[in-house]
Amino acid sequence: MTRQSILIIDDDQDIVKTVTANLELDGFAVRSASSGGAGLAAVEAQAPDLVLLDLGLPDIDGIKVCQILRRDSDVPVIMLSARDTVADKLLGLECGADDYLVKPFNALELSARIRTVLRRVRRSEPAAPCRSGEVCLNYRDHTATIHGREVGLTRTEFALLELFVSHAGETLSRDFIQGQNWADSKLYSNSRAVDVHVQRLRKKIEENPQTPRLILTIPGVGYRFETT
Fold first, then answer.
1. Listed residue (180, 137, 154) closest to 51, CA to CA
2. How far is CA 11 from the centre of its chain?
3. CB neighbours of 84 closer than 8 A, spacing ≥ 6?
4. Backbone phi, psi, residue 14, to 5°
């Protein structure tokens, strides 16, 4: 079986060596890049299964690197940073990261976070598209069609929309959404990250994200996906 590949974009060689050794013991194939530019080139050339991205890079800030990645790729991204405020974490998520881990971190926790994200990526996919009202999900290329307009989604956004579609008409609490998609991540149980991901998804699928018609906010509870 082909090993899943991890690309580490970090200029701290001590961290790179330690993380590489631990992840290789866990069965991953690991490569690294020491700058944002080299990391972007490596993603294009190597197509890794997941990227570990440091925020404090010498040439391009990690936030910018993530934004560039999100324009061209749906590769899962876990941000690594010494910045530990809620604002920093939410900024990382808003720019497109799937998870955020604060340095220094435990090797076992990092491995768990990676496997959690990759499990979402490996979810079994139906052979036929899934349709709910005006929304059609294409599982082959992780896109959605809204009123005939194709929308490219990250894997996290696709998983969230899939959850909404499969529970169309039901009010889903934030705890339920968090438990379905990010059950193993402490970050998502201690911040409003579910709201951040919903906002990102709305920007892509709603005609007017400020007055959504598809994903409605249910005050004090969570969200409901409308099919009409």
1. 154
2. 23
3. 102
4. -65, -45
Maximum Cα interatomic distance, the chain, rounded to a whole number of Å: 54
Q: Say how far apart CA 126 and CA 3 lie, in whole Å.
A: 24
Q: Is 42 helix (H, G, I), strand (E, B) or coil?
A: helix
| Angle value at C-alpha 212, between 79 and 218, nearest 5 degrees | 85
* pLDDT tens per residue across span 21-51: 999 999 999 999 999 999 999 998 888 999 9
**Cβ neighbours of residue 13 closer than 8 Å, sequence gap 6 or more:** 34
Alpha-carbon distance 58 to 13, whole Å? 13
* Contact of 60 with 36, CB cutoff 8 Å: yes
Q: Under DSSP, is residue 224 helix (H, G, I), strand (E, B) or coil?
A: strand
Entry field: residues in the chain = 228
Residue type, 187: L
> What are 181's two structure tokens?
């998609």
CA distance 39 to 9: 6
C-alpha–C-alpha distance, residues 225 and 34, integer Å: 42
The residue whose two tokens read 């294409």 is: 138
pLDDT tens profile 164-197: 988 888 899 888 887 776 554 544 544 477 888 8
Q: Note if the pTM is more than 0.85.
A: no
- Spatial separation of the C-alpha atoms in residues 213 and 116, rounded to whole Å: 31
